[in-house]
Write a structure and sequence with these properties.
It is a single chain. Helix content is 34%, strand content 26%. With 382 residues, the protein is α/β, with parallel strands linked by helices. Strands 2-3-1-4-8-7-5-6 form an 8-stranded mixed β-sheet. A 7-stranded mixed β-sheet has the order 11-10-9-12-13-15-14, with helices on both faces.
Length: 382
């Protein structure tokens, strides 16, 4: 069956890489479009991705894919009979929309629910979730059988105003070619998302480890989906797959992941979040200002420096602080290492980088809601 994976636009290649790491190479049936990856999967492979994928917001069976001109065209093209056969009695429609349209998500929900006859659309008491994802003139109609919001990490209890989502933290790690044998440093760890995502990845600990019971319960409510697709899985089959994945969790005896921050409050928040995630033993946290970080690190000892530097505002001019960060990268990064910086101040950062002949750099643009980021990828020339 065909499945839809929703991720960040311009970072779809990271999701493709993650899919192939989890379930093996895919020779055919995989297609990348704006903000989505479409792939043909066996149900067991779907379970493995749902349990382990760190780069996606949703993984769902795809019911229909549509190109449309306006809301009237969209409403007419959606095959409500195909949707209705997966619904027991009560359902809800959710709609996520990106791009410029002359309609709202609620308009789509109202029109489609009106066309589905003999079923009850209920926002509070429902068994099935029909998920409609719209990006520009493309619409993907899905059945959300897991009902798990993958973008809401369970460990993000103690947050910072500029905290980033786990999916973005994971993407930064992959852009920095991070792997479990490498030494990773985050000089501005804030509430710990980058180092916690790194710990999950290097230990092989599924990102939905503590959501497994909720996943199983939600899946088994979709009896019509199992029936129409001839999928013979029960609770024991699903939990056996999760147990097999859990058996491969291996925590490092000596931490190779280091989270630093100048704020004691931030370090405490990051430690608590890591404890909730059950990866606190894989990370070493310490309070340290960026100006003194080179005293804690050895020359050319770090494989990856991945961080979100302090933001420059009218009240806070941090060019000196950014220069200190670049000096840390120059001193501690291995010759073949990489630094990845997530910043809104790309012009200022590029100006500072141009003064260093020791560095090569490239960048990716990324829009997260109304926020425009630049991801700078730095390597050494020699």
């Amino acid at each position: 069956m065909r499945y839809l994976l929703i991720t960040y636009p311009n970072l779809e290649f990271i999701t493709k890489q993650e899919i192939e790491e989890i379930i093996g190479p895919i020779d055919r049936g995989l297609r990348i479009e704006r903000s989505v990856v479409l792939v043909d999967l066996e149900f067991e492979d779907y379970l493995r991705l749902l349990y382990q994928c760190q780069s996606v917001f949703k993984i769902m069976p795809l019911l229909q894919e549509i190109e449309f001109k306006d809301i009237d065209d969209l409403t007419e093209k959606i095959e409500v009979e195909n949707i209705a056969r997966y619904i027991n009695s009560r359902y809800v429609i959710k709609c996520k929309r990106k791009g410029n349209h002359n309609f709202q998500s609620v308009d789509v929900i109202a029109r489609i629910s009106k066309r589905i006859k003999g079923k009850i659309h209920d926002f509070h008491n429902f068994d099935q979730v029909i998920y409609i994802f719209i990006y520009d003139n493309k619409c993907y109609v899905c059945l959300d059988i897991s009902v798990i919001d993958l973008d809401k990490r369970y460990y993000r209890v103690f947050t910072h105003p500029s905290s980033i989502k786990g999916q973005l933290a994971y993407a930064l790690l992959r852009l920095g070619t991070y792997s479990k044998e490498k030494i990773l440093v985050d000089p501005y760890c804030r509430s710990g998302e980058i180092v916690i995502e790194a710990a999950h990845y290097c230990c092989g600990m599924p990102i939905n480890y503590f959501n497994k019971d909720k996943i199983v319960h939600s899946l088994l409510k979709n009896k019509e989906f199992f029936k129409y697709n001839s999928i013979n899985y029960n609770r024991e089959h699903i939990t056996a797959i999760f147990r097999e994945i859990d058996s491969k969790i291996t925590k490092q005896k000596v931490p190779k992941i280091f989270g630093y921050d100048s704020s004691v409050s931030n370090i405490n928040c990051a430690k608590k979040n890591a404890s909730i995630a059950n990866v606190e033993d894989c990370i070493k946290f310490a309070r340290c200002d960026i100006s003194f970080l080179d005293l804690k690190l050895k020359a050319k000892s770090v494989d990856c420096i991945i961080t979100q530097p302090s933001h420059i505002t009218k009240r806070r001019h941090s060019s000196k602080e950014l220069s200190s960060l670049l000096e840390v990268i120059k001193y501690s990064l291995k010759r073949e290492g990489k630094a990845v910086l997530l910043t809104k101040d790309s012009d200022n950062m590029k100006e500072l980088l141009d003064a260093y002949k020791e560095f090569n750099y490239s960048y990716h643009r990324l829009e997260v809601g109304d926020i425009k980021y630049n991801i700078l990828i730095i390597s050494k020339t020699s």
